[in-house]
Amino acid sequence: MEVSGDYDNLKNRPLTPLRILRGLIILLIFLSTAFMFLIYFSPVFALSLRLLSVHQSRKSISLIFGHWLALWPYLFETVNRTTVIFSGDTLPVEKRVLLIANHRTEVDWMYLWNIALRKGCLGYIKYVLKSSLMRLPIFGWGFHILEFIPVERNREVDEPVMLQMLSTFKDPREPLWLALFPEGTDFTDEKCKRSQKFAAEAGLPALSNVLLPKTKGFSVCFEALHNSLDAVYDLTIAYKPRCPSFMDNVFGTEPSEVHIHVRRVLAKEIPANDAESSAWLMDSFQLKDKLLSGFNAQGQFPNQRQGGGEELSILKCVATFGVVISLTGLFIYLTLYSHSCFKAYVGLSFTYLSFATYYKFRPSPLAGCCRGDSSSKEGKEH
């Protein structure tokens, strides 16, 4: 997406040897911390504690892995010096929301963490994502433990899976930030042309900056959860000077600015039935298209405010890095240099995570151990 305006101060940062070295160190940190956190914490909180209480299991996992996820927003804003600029509605602190956003690039979903961290809800965020991502080394384990919802982009296959998982998220006492990208894939000019051709044949709006949304996934999520949701956050994302890739983020070459326009809609203001919620979503993407056209021309969204008035704390950044890396160092020491029982624990944990992710297994609470637990009726998922 090309944007007009003065970009003298927003040129692509060169990939210097120092940036390459820093990026490799960052990759090593993220992979090692993710691996060790999953290996050591998952059997305790995603297996053992879940046998007693799904609610307490989710609460513990949200706390632990929320701290790990916080490394990414701190990387973007503190280390890479990417400026996050919000516009539109100011968000209160709400624990149960459905987020929808346009899909510009492979890393859009990571910038939602910048919002969730500011609202103290980072550990509660979950995504509807393509099932192939569940097969990623290490991160696929994390997606499973955090209870992301995998889809095959096939309505007949996906709807029963989504409904089953959504049925476990209905308790209004449990915080939930569920994120969905209704376009189903990232935006390219070629995909846009195909989308416009389909729109012309189906009598739907022709969109230039977003793809036609796939309304069924949104309808299923909203219909299942609307009684327990506080609001829907309709997010429109744009970048300067251009869209980043995952490696751009790692090496800090892109982007200089991330612009996020926020429209907050109360859940009760959106019709819950399939046809009307689909029409609402289509209208929201027409609005996104207009917002992005304005961004392309003006270089900003209306009513922008840098950092949303909530800048990330350097002190918290350093403390989070310190805690995560210290724990990882301890786990590495226990694995390599301590008693052999730790090596056995790592081996068993590795086996369990591989098995659970591949077979989509989550244990049910033991009978009688979780009376009153909001999710006690949840069965094993296969």
Automatic annotation (TrEMBL):
Per UniProt, residues of the Phospholipid/glycerol acyltransferase domain are 97-219
The pathway it acts in is: Lipid metabolism; Phospholipid metabolism; CDP-diacylglycerol biosynthesis; CDP-diacylglycerol from sn-glycerol 3-phosphate: step 2/3
Recorded superkingdom: Eukaryota
Record GO terms (molecular function): 1-acylglycerol-3-phosphate O-acyltransferase activity
Top-level class of the enzyme under EC nomenclature: transferase
Record-level GO cellular component terms:
endomembrane system
Family indicated by similarity: Belongs to the 1-acyl-sn-glycerol-3-phosphate acyltransferase family.
**What protein am I looking at?**
1-acylglycerol-3-phosphate O-acyltransferase
Point out the gene that encodes the protein: LOC108814798
